[in-house]
Design brief:
Blueprint lengths: L17 H13 L3 H7 L12 H4 L12 E4 L2 E4 L3 H13 L5 E4 L15 E2 L11 H24 L6 E2 L3 E5 L2 H16 L5 E4 H4 L10 E5 L3 E3 L1 H7 L1 H6 L3 E3 L6 E3 L4 E5 L2 E5 L2 E3 L15 E11 L4 H7 L6 E4 L5 E5 L5 E5 L5 E2 L13 H17 L8 E12 L5 E5 L5 E5 L6 H15 L24 H13 L6
Parallel strand pairs: 1-13, 2-3, 2-14, 3-10, 6-16, 14-22
Antiparallel strand pairs: 4-9, 5-9, 6-8, 7-8, 11-12, 12-13, 15-18, 15-19, 15-20, 16-17, 17-18, 21-22
Bound molecules: flavin-adenine dinucleotide.
Flavin-adenine dinucleotide binds next to α4, β15, β20 and α12.
């Protein structure tokens, strides 16, 4: 049996179609042109700047000044999202005398960590298994990750809007609902507390149209990632971490001592953490491993009790559906409905790994119209709700949807945790524990993970990447995966 509970942005692997096999073959051929493409098509370092509703929850936040001059550190972390901040937190805790520097191109949580759907979920994307031991281990790991998020919020009294009263996976066909029911029973047999809810049981609490049943994961929930990441900044600084925002790393030169070049400075360090997720290829690394996919999101103004009543959403922090072009939604404690995904148009891949989707572009406008339509399909009264904020963010997508975790380089001194494929809130927050263990020379807690230090299915260079994405999504209505 395949575990599919709440696999946001990922469905259980299905049988490969002829189209998929054909495209895979073409991709392997196209990959031979990498040396040429890498030289002819340099990538541009760019970032979304439209604030999300989560950013609006950190009013007055001021990024720290950029790095000026040449400095040395024991460990330099590139990227200030969940992964980078979590790495800084755990390494600083474990090695209080080490000099740690965090370099963030714009401001903390300006990437996916402050632009997501907010769902803190169980499970790891891309792992479909019928092995009960592996199922239990993955569940225990991500469940510990959820507890760790809540513990951090409580320990440091972080002002983070959150609720952990469970999330749903909505099943949109009777057949899939039946399979999900059987799966929920199987998981319960392993001691995993998921529950299947029939549509008749669901309706009084969550009345979405076209739903044939749902799987409830009671310990999952929803957080404001921008408040979480930015709230940790003073804690890191108290622990001696030097944080430079507005500091893009524009060049990385590997070696026993790694040199990171920024517009006004340089960092020399014997070890570096790549916490750059969907932006990683800009540094010339992992270019064939993951690609940036834009997902658009909207948030309503806080709903009145009457609007919430009419909406039919009376319980649970959030949901995702069981479709390949997944829809995801959350209802915050302050009564805002946050929603994204749900169709080909709601997601976009831009030529040559562009990582900024201008909000005024036709692609962004089409995406926003598409997500509004999908939302109204689930909740008809949502069509008239006041929209307070629209934005998009960059996911780091791998072809098999598994993350990329490990150490890289001749001296194995580049630590990386990337490619969560849209399911990273829990895992990216665990990544810091992983990196601290590896940095300390002990991988025993992690070496069973199927994606640890593993090979990945390669993605071809441009122009094949863009053409392949367009062809695959239009022909199949699905997102490219192997
Ligand atoms: C629209 C959207 C919806 C999502 N919904 C969910 C969800 O509901 N649940 C879930 O679990 N996951 C979701 N995700 C995925 C989740 O948000 C990510 O997996 C997670 O935030 C990844 O964290 P990160 O720190 O690795 O990457 P990011 O948050 O992207 O952080 C990377 C950081 O690196 C910085 N950076 C990049 N390049 C450089 C450079 N050269 N120099 C310096 N800094 C650099 C960037 O500015 C950025 O701040 C969603 C993502 C998006 C975009």
């Amino acid at each position: 049996m395949l575990l599919i509970c709440n696999s946001i942005f990922a469905m259980a692997p299905t049988q490969r179609s002829r189209t998929t096999r054909l495209l895979e073959g073409a991709a392997a051929l196209a990959a031979r042109t990498w040396p040429l493409a890498a030289r002819l098509l340099p990538e541009r370092l760019e970032f979304d700047d439209t604030p999300s509703i989560w950013h609006a929850g950190t009013p007055g936040y001021q990024p720290r000044p950029p790095l000026r001059g040449v400095i040395s550190a024991d460990l330099a972390i590139i990227g200030g999202g969940f992964t980078g901040v979590s790495a800084a937190y755990h390494v600083a805790q474990r090695f209080p005398n080490h000099c740690i520097v965090l370099l963030e191109a714009t401001s903390l949580a300006n990437g996916a960590s402050g632009r997501n759907g907010g769902l803190a979920l169980n499970w790891i994307n891309g792992i479909g298994t019928d092995d009960p031991d592996l199922t239990r281990k993955v569940y225990d790991l991500t469940s510990a990750g959820l507890v760790a998020i809540r513990t951090l919020i409580e320990r440091h009294h972080l002002s983070v809007d959150h609720r952990f009263d469970g999330t749903l996976t909505l099943h949109t066909s009777a057949e899939r609902a039946e399979a999900a029911h059987a799966e929920a029973e199987y998981l319960q047999g392993l001691g995993i507390p998921v529950r299947f809810l029939r549509s008749s049981d669901l309706r009084s609490r969550f009345d979405a149209c076209g739903v044939c049943g749902a799987t409830l994961e009671p310990d999952t929930g929803q957080i404001n990632g921008a408040q979480f990441v930015r709230g940790l900044r003073p804690i890191l600084e108290e622990r001696g971490v030097a944080i430079y925002e507005q500091t893009p790393v524009i060049r990385i030169r590997t070696g026993r001592i790694i040199r990171l070049t920024t517009p006004q400075g340089e960092v020399h360090a014997p070890a570096v953490v790549l916490a750059t997720n969907g932006y990683t290829s800009k540094l010339g690394l992992f270019r064939d491993a993951l690609f940036p996919l834009h997902s658009s999101v909207l948030a309503t103004a806080p709903l009145t009790p009457d609007q919430q009543q009419r909406l039919g959403w009376r319980a649970f922090a959030g949901f995702a559906d069981d479709l390949d072009r997944i829809s995801y939604g959350a209802l915050t404690r302050t009564g805002r409905l946050v929603f994204g995904g749900g169709s080909n148009q709601a997601y976009a891949y831009l030529f040559n790994n562009r990582t900024r989707l201008p909000p005024e572009s036709a692609v962004a406008r089409r995406a926003q119209a598409a997500i509004a339509r999908t939302l109204a399909g689930y909740f008809p009264s949502a069509a008239t709700l006041p929209i307070a904020c629209r934005w998009s963010g960059v996911l780091g997508i791998t072809l098999n949807r598994q993350p990329l975790w490990g150490r890289w380089g001749e001296y194995k001194n580049v630590y990386y945790a990337l490619g969560y494929s849209g399911h990273g809130i829990t895992l990216a927050n665990l990544a810091g524990e992983f990196i601290a263990d590896l940095y300390g020379g002990d991988d025993s807690r992690w070496c069973w993970l199927p994606f640890y230090q593993s090979r990945y299915p390669p993605i071809p260079p441009e122009p094949f990447r863009w053409l392949g994405y367009q062809a695959f999504t239009r022909l199949t209505g699905r997102s490219p995966r192997v």
